[in-house]
Amino acid sequence: MQRVLLVAFASAAVALGLMPRTGSAQPPIPPRITVAAWNIEWLGKPHNRSGAGKDVAQSAQDIADYIKASAVDILSVEEVTFDTGTDDNRQNKTLVDACKFLNRLPGQQWEHRLFPKRDEDAKDQCVGLIWNESRVQPQKTQGNKPFYRLEMTAPQNLTDDPDFGAGSHYFDRWATAMKFSAGKDKTDVVLIPVHLKANIGGVAKTRRQRNVEAKMLTKALAKVRDAFRDDDIIILGDTNILKNDEPATTTITHAGFNDLNFLDAATHQGGAPFDRAFVADDTNPKGRNKEFAHSAQEVFAHPDFNSQQFKKRLSDHYLIRFSIDVMDDDD
């Protein structure tokens, strides 16, 4: 009887496509790189953290352990204080040490960079990138620059944009792009870390502001493509978007992107789906962005910390991650 049940199960699995048919050729699984985003709550300014994390400075070891466990290759970060390095190479002391911990492991070469805000003298709540250079290598712009600060124009009145709000500071955490390659003549991608307007100040007002910021961002993408000669763009980070039908989401997806958190999976301990990745669409086998065809966003829970420990020692946001195929470069 047991053998009969096993045969019946196997036959059903084949019919459903869960198991290969005998003798059928399966396409090879391409190598992959993993991309992620994480809002590290007020890193560098622990007195601004909330709840159990209030006045608790995150440790470099805890951050390194979480990144290691996540097995990511490139990580967008938000809410990070620029407190070391130079204006041309902005860094954070805790992330410098976290990279040192990671680099003690074989085959690791972690680096990081923070980007200037709209007010280039401001140092708190910056966005940036951390990457393992043994897996992905930064690529310069056509002008031989290590990154590209987007050329965005904020509206000045309702004539410029019907969502304009007097007194709004659009894109305080200014958008900047970096390009990475997975190897010579292999997949390369342009990452744009973002941290859009928070919901403080009222949902209706901040929804409109996020949509203005999304329009500013998408209008600037043509020059991003020119700067890097690349169409494989990823927009990711803490969008503060509350639902997938929010106007900002629609603006970005209509500009040619897929929202990898279209199911609104909670990424914040309060249950909100704030953290999202948008990848360029046209992902069919002959499309321009086919390396994203199998990308699916997931929330990475800490393997050892419960939610209260995670909040106290790290953040109120969890890391999100997804993988992309490494194949011959097509642009």
What does this structure look like?
Residues 37-285 form the Endonuclease/exonuclease/phosphatase domain. InterPro entries: Endo/exonu/phosph_ase_sf, Endo/exonuclease/phosphatase. Keywords: Signal. With 331 residues, the protein is of the alpha+beta class. It has 7 helices and 15 strands. The termini are far apart. It is globular, with a radius of gyration of 21 Å.
Overall mean pLDDT stands at 92
Query: What is the helix/strand order?
Result: HEHEEEHEEEEEEHHEHEEEHE
Rounded radius of gyration (Å): 21 Å
Which CATH C-level class is it?
Answer: Alpha Beta
Decide which structural class fits the backbone.
alpha+beta
Whole-Å distance between the termini?
57 Å
Task: Determine the CATH topology.
Answer: Deoxyribonuclease I, Chain A
Shape: globular
Biggest sheet details: 7 strands, mixed
**CATH-assigned homologous superfamily:** Endonuclease/exonuclease/phosphatase
Contiguous low-pLDDT stretches (5 residues minimum) are 1-23
Please state the second-level CATH architecture.
4-Layer Sandwich
Number of strands: 15
Fraction of helical residues: 10-25%
Overall tally of structural domains: 1
**Strand portion:** 15-25%
Number of helices: 7
